[in-house]
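Complex record, two chains
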Amino acid sequence: ETGVTQTPRHLVMGMTNKKSLKCEQHLGHNAMYWYKQSAKKPLELMFVYSLEERVENNSVPSRFSPECPNSSHLFLHLHTLQPEDSALYLCASSQETGAGNQPQHFGDGTRLSIL
Amino acid sequence: QQQVKQSPQSLIVQKGGISIINCAYENTAFDYFPWYQQFPGKGPALLIAIRPDVSEKKEGRFTISFNKSAKQFSLHIMDSQPGDSATYFCAAAGSARQLTFGSGTQLTVLP
């Protein structure tokens, strides 16, 4: 496989459930990102990891918990979500953090629906 | 200060026409301006990017025009094709900060 792979592609969960989103990158990059994409809104950066260390957390509610066990894998653990959390969650990677001249490569996202 | 304002929200163009999407920013520290293209069911993909030391960058049918004094930049798609139908996002960032995205433009190119 190449690029950035996200699983599952679709997820429906109740507000009391616990689930996890998975992201894997095969590009040899050192930085990984979680974004939230809602209709007609800018992509919202949630978390940034550089070499498995979290370097940015943009005031994301604690019901979202990221985990980066190594530079190729990124998880987003979900628990007690709210209906407004329904969105497309995108994972991205880049060679290093900081936009500079580092293009970000995105996965195809997980479409999350909260019942 | 961190916002990037994008317009129009949606755009319909005839095949062969020119598609123009505009973005404006506030933060003068921004020095990297990429455009991303997103097809339905797919993640955004980098299309073209520019730095403020040039006023224009062209790659095939896609051109970025950059006006530093006005703090504006735009994407021009020449000879637009139905396959260009997608959502386009502008973005901006300073050298050590993360990307700030516009709200997107849904482009439809009619056959």
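Note: Chain A is about 0% helix and 55% strand.
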